[in-house]
Specification:
The complex is a heterodimer of chains A (279) and B (146).
Chain A lengths: L6 E3 L4 H9 L3 E3 L5 H6 L7 E4 L9 E4 L2 E5 L4 H5 L2 H6 L1 H7 L5 H6 L2 H7 L6 H8 L2 E6 L2 E6 H4 E3 L2 E2 L6 E8 L5 E8 L6 E12 L2 E10 L6 E2 L1 H8 L4 H5 L16 H21 L3
Parallel strand pairs in A: 1-3, 2-3
Antiparallel strand pairs in A: 4-5, 5-10, 6-7, 6-10, 8-9, 11-12, 12-13, 13-14
Helix pairs in contact in A: 5-8
Chain B lengths: L1 E8 L3 H7 L3 H7 L3 E8 L2 E10 L2 E15 L3 E10 L2 E14 L2 E13 L1 H6 L3 H22 L1
Antiparallel strand pairs in B: 1-7, 2-3, 3-4, 4-5, 5-6, 6-7
Helix pairs in contact in B: 2-4
Classes of the chains: A alpha+beta (279), B alpha+beta (146).
Amino acid sequence: MIPQSFDYSAPATLKEALAQVSSGAKPLAGGMSLVPIMKLRLAAPEQLVDLGRIPELNYIRKEGSELRIGAMTTHYQIESSPLVRADCALLGETAGRIGDVQVRNVGTIGGSVAHADPAADYPAALLALGASLKLVSTGGERVLAAAQFFLDTFTTALDPGELIAEVRVPVSSGAGTAYVKLAQPASGFALVGIAARLVRAGNRIGSAAIGVTGVGPKAYRASEVERLLAAGKPTREAALHITGGIDVNSDLHASAEYRRHLASVYAARAIELAWSRTE
Amino acid sequence: MKISGAYRLSLPQERAYALLQDPAMLAHCMPGAERLDKVGEDEYQMKLRMSIASISGNFDGRVRVADKNPHQSFRLVVEGTGKIGFVRGDGLLRIAAEDSGSNVTYEGDVQVGGTIAAVGQRLLDVTSKMMIKRFFDKFAEAAASA
């Protein structure tokens, strides 16, 4: 279908984009979610600001012990970046599992994170990594931990007029990481997605961080599983607690019961794979 | 789609029962409700602007309170139709005294149709739950300051 008509602008600087967003224009990142719903006329923004022509939002660089990734960096750029592969393999692996190659070529990390789909892939990895987000508006900037950013289904801590400028992930040194998911075949969205980050202490798990997506109303950290793993419990036993305290989603692709089972199986797989990659 | 759940309110049972049927409270707490006008006994006309993710749309609908069993239970029927689809919800709310407050349990059926349902199948359950939670959160907050 054809969307309702709208005004379109593609500024070259973040400053211009922020001025427009603060006066009510809808930001357009990769458009992998927004454009289809506009075509279906489920959304009819009057004015779009395309962030795709702003060079200062597209970069991957290392600063101190962090990787800093501009919001308009595409999934493909992240997946194929040698810097990401070397310093934060989990994020690269996660980016490589998003949707299909066409989506990854156009979709951006900032767009996906701002959209906050409960089955999006990045949130699981960002939570497991302890990532943070730099948010900007005409009034200034602030940095927020990913755990404080995702509030609920499609609901984030972004204020009106605010944009994500940068994603910051700590460099993983020595940790073993893995992202495994069961994708719904048509949409590519995760029925279950598990991001695991393990630090080895001798012959056992020293600490664990497990991010889960697709399972609850928003992505979450499975803190009970993390605690059990660090306490030396066997992987499969710990993984059974992956949905503890979570109101598990149910839809026509997977009932809550099936999803709960899948989550424990995929959690065990993610933990085993991450363990095999620890140094 | 079946929905059910529970929510704890720090309100006495009688007051919770009355406020849950109070049109001013319903208009204030239903996510996106813009106005609620009385059209008959326990029946209201509603204008609602739903906005979730980037999707937004206006709905015209009706809210009806039925099967009143004072202080214990009633049925709430909500219907809305708009360009992007339709929503119909029919739920039984039970209010029980618990300690110093009350416990509200709900059980019902939600039907969603039209374009939103066709493309949003995988999100219907999770968004319905979120809307209900938003309603009760706002309700608890408004009731505490009322």
